[in-house]
Amino acid sequence: MAVSFGTGRCFALGAVLASLLLAAPALALAPEHETRRLMLATEEAVVAENWGEAAEYLNRLQQLEGEKPADYFFYRGRVMLQSAHLNEAQSALETYVSRAGTEGAHYQESLQLITSIEKTRKQNALAPQSAGESEQVAVIEPAGEGRIESLRKLYLADSDREALTLHINSLLELAGWRRDQAVVRLDRPADVEYRVGTQDDQVQIQEIRRAEDGRILRSTEQMSVFGINPRVEWRCEAAVSTCWVYDPRDGSRLLQLAENRERAQEIAETLGQLIRSLQAPSGS
């Protein structure tokens, strides 16, 4: 069975023509030119409020090697916000602001959207109390059971496994760890990055580590999901500006991430949900 890191699928029946156009094979452009082409297509789709097309182009951009332009994170934030994925929308927009700075074309709009997201989250947190409910509802938990269907729609995926794989890679794209926490260089990827894939009943975790001398070290770890607890632990350590996601097999450190508690929690939860989906007999 071939390894899959997740690919976009067809839209609804009413969008067949757009789907066929998007699925058509592209010319063998160099990655930098393909990135620019897809960025232009994403911008046009967002301006036209064709959110399904924008999501498809962003998914294809996610698969490309190399550092993404700052605007990529702005558009991903817009699409995630449109799909009510508030946590990831805010993370993407904050990443755009940190990378583009005050000179960014979407700087002011991004700040306004981040403020709007914070207001929405506060309103959602207060809503259960006003309705007389005794417990607060977790409204931004994309990896939860009630959110998988929305993830499948967001990523145009045919299965839970595919949607969760695309989602965790989207989160990891924002969570790269850097030695220099004070300065984020636009021309250099993070020092430690990860990509997740699946094969049969295994989760495959690729680590991309950039040494100080410029060498790129890649390693892939296979994790069989048979018999392991899908509850994945995580913790952030402010002293070293790092969050860790722990290996559910033995409790050792598995993923080294930038310090962001909400993002680390969501990555851990999504990984656990992916493990659970691979353990399911249906193979969803």
Walk me through the structure:
It is a single chain. Strand 2 and strand 3 form a beta hairpin. The strands form 2 sheets. Strands 1-2-3 form a 3-stranded antiparallel beta sheet. It has a 3-stranded antiparallel beta sheet with strand order 4-5-6, with helices on one face. 46% of the residues lie in helices and 14% in strands. With 284 residues, it is an alpha+beta fold. The N terminus is likely disordered.
Biggest β-sheet: strands ordered side by side in the sheet: 1-2-3
Cα shape: globular
User: How many DSSP-defined strands?
Assistant: 6
What is Rg?
A: 19 Å
State the end-to-end distance: 15 Å
Biggest sheet record: 3 strands, antiparallel
Please mark out the parts with pLDDT under 50 across 5 or more consecutive residues, or reply none: 1-26, 129-143
| Share of helical residues | 40-55%
Structural class: alpha+beta
Topology (elements, then pairings):
Elements: H1 16-23, H2 31-47, H3 51-63, H4 70-82, H5 86-100, H6 107-130, H7 148-154, H8 160-174, E1 192-199, E2 202-210, E3 216-224, E4 234-237, E5 242-246, E6 253-258, H9 261-279
Antiparallel strand pairs: 1-2, 2-3, 4-5, 5-6
Helix pairs in contact: 2-3, 2-4, 3-4, 4-5, 5-6, 7-8, 8-9
Task: Summarize this entry quickly.
With 284 residues, the chain is of the alpha+beta class. It is built from nine helices and six strands; from the N terminus they run H-H-H-H-H-H-H-H-E-E-E-E-E-E-H. It has helices at 16-23, 31-47, 51-63, 70-82, 86-100, 107-130, 148-154, 160-174, 261-279, and strands at 192-199, 202-210, 216-224, 234-237, 242-246, 253-258.
